[in-house]
Design a protein that fits this description.
Elements lengths: L18 H14 L7 H12 L6 H11 L2 H6 L2 H4 L7 H24 L6 H12 L6 E7 L5 E9 L9 H10 L4 E7 L9 H14 L5 E8 L4 E3 L7
Length: about 240
């Protein structure tokens, strides 16, 4: 049982422990295939089996997917929200969170491997994993070197559901500290709609103006929504 002690009474009782055979069958299906034939909750089951021993985790996996809507939303959920689910304690919430962080790190490795301008699909996947399920607005700055390779990805502001404070002079100062030659701005819209707002456009131009005297280019400003990421450059807004 997970250390949160929230499993349903009787979930691990009874001599038959019918779920043991089910666990093995699911594991074998994962080992022998690419997972395409499995439902989302079944793949999540395999993960939960490692975190929650001696409990039938199928109902927990189904509840997680039903509550959050998608597997990606489950993995991106805050630990406190995960622990609202019966059967999920602190340890399992931490393990699920760690799984999401590993996915982000792996996506980050893909971004760092090549210049981001020629590796745009990897960049979009990276920012989507990091931001599309955030419940409040978060602004990030990707600092790039002369070859357009990623030097640093830093949070420039956290905010409410529709605003994150960002300071153009601070971004310019940090770019100088890192010897960056270019930056890419990224932020999310928790509403799910990635359409740039008037405030987004105005802030982008302020940051571009702050960077220009330093000969630091603003390559793009990406707005991450629930199912799409919008490039302000592609929209002709930069």
């Amino acid at each position: 049982m997970d250390d949160g002690g929230k499993s349903k009474p009787g979930a691990s009782e009874g001599p038959a422990k019918h779920y043991h055979g089910h666990r093995e069958r699911i594991r074998q299906r994962i080992m022998k295939g690419d997972g395409a034939h499995l439902d989302d909750y079944e793949i999540l089951e395999v993960l939960l089996c490692a975190f929650i021993p001696r409990v039938d985790v199928r109902p927990i996996a189904k509840t997680l997917v039903d509550r959050f809507g998608t597997v990606s939303a489950v993995l991106a959920a805050a630990p406190g929200r995960l622990m609202e689910i019966d059967g999920i304690g602190e340890a399992t919430a931490a393990y699920l969170r760690a799984t999401n962080l590993l996915l982000q790190r792996a996506a980050g490795d893909e971004v760092k491997a090549k210049p981001v301008i020629t590796n745009w699909a990897a960049l979009l996947n990276y920012v989507k994993l990091a931001l599309r399920h955030e419940r409040s607005e978060q602004a990030r700055v990707l600092y790039l070197d002369r070859k357009n390779k990623l030097i640093a990805d830093e949070i420039a502001g956290r905010g409410t559901v529709d605003h994150a404070p960002v300071y153009p002079r601070e971004i310019a100062r940090r770019a100088l500290e890192l010897s960056a030659s270019a930056v890419i701005l990224v932020h999310n819209h928790p509403s799910g709609d990635p359409t740039p707002s008037r405030a987004d456009i105005d802030l982008t131009r302020e940051i571009e103006k702050a960077l220009a005297p330093l000969e630091i280019r603003l390559h793009d400003h990406l707005v991450v929504g629930a199912s799409e990421t919008v490039s302000m450059k592609a929209k002709g807004l930069i």
